[in-house]
Amino acid sequence: MTPAELIERGIRAYTRGEVGEAERLWRDVLAMDPDNTRARSFLELLGGWLVAAKAMPVPLPAPSGSFQPAPVAVGPTSVPLPSPDSSWLSSPTTISLGAHPDAALRDISAPPQPAGASSHEGPSGDVATPSSAGTRAKGGQGSQASSMSAEDRPSAPGLGDYAPSPWDLGPARTPAIVLSEGPGLDLVSVAEQSGVRTLVPDTGGSPEAAAKPCSEIEIWMQGARELFALGDFSGSLAMIEKILKVEPMHGEAREYLQQNEATLIAMYESKLGSIGLIPRLALKPEEILWLNLDHRAGFLLAQIDGVVSYEDLFALSGLPRLDTARILASLLEEGVVTS
Amino acid sequence: MSDLDQDPAIGIDLGTTNTVVAAVVDGVPRVIANRQGQLLTPSVVAVAKNGKRLVGQMAKRQAITNAENTIFAAKRLIGRRWGSREVEDARRVLPYELMAGPEGNDVRVKMGAKTWAVSEISALVIAELKADAEAFLGREVSRAVLTVPAYFNDGQRQATRDAGRIAGLDVLRIINEPTSAALAYGFGKDVEKQVVVFDLGGGTFDISILDIGKSVYDVVGVGGDTYLGGEDFDRRVMDWVTFSFAKEHAGIDLRQDKMALQRLRDAAEKAKCDLSGVPAVSIHLPFLIGGGDGRPALHLEKQLTREKLEELTGDLVERCIQVTTRTLRDAGVRPSQIGEVILVGGMTRMPRVQQAVRDFFGRDPSRAVHPEEVVALGAAIQAHALAHPKASMEVLLLDVTPQNLGILVVGGYFQTIIPRNTSVPTSATHIFTTSQDDQTSVRIAVMQGESEKAVENELLGEFVLDGIRPARRGEVEIEVNFDISADGIVSVSAKDMVTGQRQSITVTATSGLTEDELRRIMEENLDELLERKQAGSDFEKHRGSVLKVIEDIEALVPSVTSALARSRFGKDAVAKAEATVQRARLAIDARDGAQLLALEEQLERALQLFRGLVAGGPKEKGP
Description:
The complex is a heterodimer of chains A (about 350) and B (about 625).
Chain A: H1 3-15, H2 19-32, H3 37-47, H4 50-53, H5 87-90, H6 103-109, H7 118-121, H8 135-139, H9 187-194, H10 207-211, H11 214-230, H12 233-246, H13 251-272, E1 280-281, H14 285-288, H15 295-303, H16 310-317, H17 321-333, E2 337-338
Antiparallel strand pairs in A: 1-2
Helix pairs in contact in A: 1-2, 2-3, 11-12, 11-13, 12-13, 13-17, 16-17
Chain B: E1 9-14, E2 18-25, E3 28-31, E4 41-42, E5 44-47, E6 53-55, H1 57-60, E7 70-72, H2 85-93, E8 98-100, E9 107-111, E10 114-117, H3 118-137, E11 143-148, H4 154-166, E12 170-176, H5 177-186, E13 192-200, E14 205-213, E15 216-225, H6 230-248, H7 258-274, E16 280-289, E17 298-305, H8 306-331, E18 340-344, H9 351-361, H10 374-387, E19 396-398, E20 404-409, E21 413-418, E22 426-433, E23 441-449, E24 458-466, E25 477-484, E26 490-496, E27 502-507, H11 515-565, H12 573-589, H13 593-616
Helix pairs in contact in B: 3-4, 5-10, 6-7, 6-8, 8-9, 11-12, 11-13, 12-13
């Protein structure tokens, strides 16, 4: 299978909610083509773990076919921790991992680790403590070594090998915040310069939108762009619809929605031929019963009487034009109707 | 000279649920099928979800799935006043939005992005039938007679007339439906008897008693129920099927799914109609509704017998008979005095209805006329008579006043001056007096209606007569005169008998549309009509040239085939050309102008190729 095909399969797997499978496929791509930027970008979006992999040999696909956690990962379901320099960390909001609803919780349960510390813990080392759970949330940094493979880890690190702990990053090491002159505290200025964000989103969006991490939408958007580029307009449309459910006013998603719909309608209508043509049933009524149709196709089929044209059916169906075109093209392709 | 050589005039039966058009062709009245080949065109108009305007059957077929933009039963609203009881009743049952007109007194409906006058909606249906008639007769039609129920008041008649005008027709006359039916029944016969027109249509039931004598048709009594018709019968079947289905499928309610409901309604209506001819039918609707939880779609398979249908609708038939009894009693006519019963409306084809009529009148109803066509045929006869008076035998139609006409009197009461069922033209005079001492003026409020209370009747117009001689109350006599012309125009005058002071008013019925509004709508329609005509003539032009090219290609096929037999090349040229010809023929059938235009070029190229092959012959001989 070519890298492009693997990427596409990965996107499809992701669309189905099979995040592990998507990761495996994209990692397979990197195994075949380490410089594949698309696979890399997807994996980065999935959690930023791959950034660490830049500095190490390309990991081999896991034998089980699912993503293998880095040895320092904690908890019953291991999830790779992000590297400190990944964009994942710089994100002001917590990142969840695709279909894992509790991924964010797992992230913050990971303890602050010094560089290379994971080698002491071993693959099953559960070192997380309740008190450490909030550390990364506070400091906004994680373990650099969390996603390293066992082979790369130094066997006996000294103190100098450890990355500075966030606990050590006291206020003195934080850049000073310059307040603008004038009365009172300029909260906007503080927020801009410190990276501190308010706890409650102040965007005025829906609770769902606020709860949904923006990176997940970005993953969907990226998937939609990729699928569109691959010519899978249905897949792209499905992703766009997911985005618009969460963020109805997402500008790019709306543009893609229009593009996808227009393209799909044109594709399906081209299969029908002229929309002025009159479709006819190609099967006997008793044969129709053996088909596997849904009630919408049943409705459209019931309207075909040898008098109405495809154009009429678009008007009669009461369905969106895309759905009508899709059903009719499918009926035509399956030989249920002829024109 | 044949009728087609003359300027044709058509008759239109504008019904609540269906509309029919007819014309006299070569001396014989006949119903004109619409362009889909059906004699009945549903009186339904819609703007589909894709923005396309639909009229007739197409609009009806999406009436449930697109209920808010589908206008049906406009006849219940035409010419009605906003706030009237009838409009309030309609608002309760109609799924589309009604609103008051700009003057606040007539009804408008919302369809698509636009607000329409009811006359405009009816005009869309009439225009469709006009186009059907023009396609059938092969020439433009500009004159028509329209029919209305006998109980329609002047405002409703005027609104119907306006609908005809908006559709581009010169409305020669508005005639009563029962009169029209009787006219078709009596056509070419020497009939002198009292007849009953029993009209059970899709939405309403009307019963009329007419005296026919020496080509004079006199309506002597009318009655009915404006909310009783074929749709009530359909609903009974739908309910029965819905409950049976819910019982079989764990309570799945078909009424909750618009697509399922639409199919069910169509199937129920068809089953009901079929049961007039056969004892049992099968209602078969595959993939009707989703099974829920990802299960496959469910099918509906149900047997309905005539017996069951009669059981489900027995009370509706009984209501018809009760209304008939009351109407005959009001008119002072016994069933045994009726010389003929003319059945009108599709529902009268139901054997149970025919049996009920037979039982009530003690005689078989007439089989001389088709119930669904008879009103339109009568209108066509009248239209032909009015359009070609010399060519037609004289038919004198005596229409009657549908409701009492009178004035408001002291105490808020209504004083009838011309009672309903009075043949028009007519006139009547009544003497009134003043109600107060030294009263110098009186207000004459002209009204129409059936109630003793003036407020419940319709105000047609009013004027003040002043300059009355001061005197004690009751001493001054004022003569009020009503005069109704054959066209239904009511003139009312009041005169002080002593001073001779006189004042009068002519009541011109109004549909609610102002003359300016009407003119604007007609101009808009004219633009649209011209565009359609242009599109139609473009298509016809291309059709003609494409057919000519096809003819030339087909003529060359044998020579080309023979020429190609000697060549290694172009073996598929004939097959390709034939495929293009086939596609062009399909485009012509579908009246797809764009496709035809695209194919015209391909056909031209094929023709050039064929000509070249035939003229030059194959240059290369195959091995």
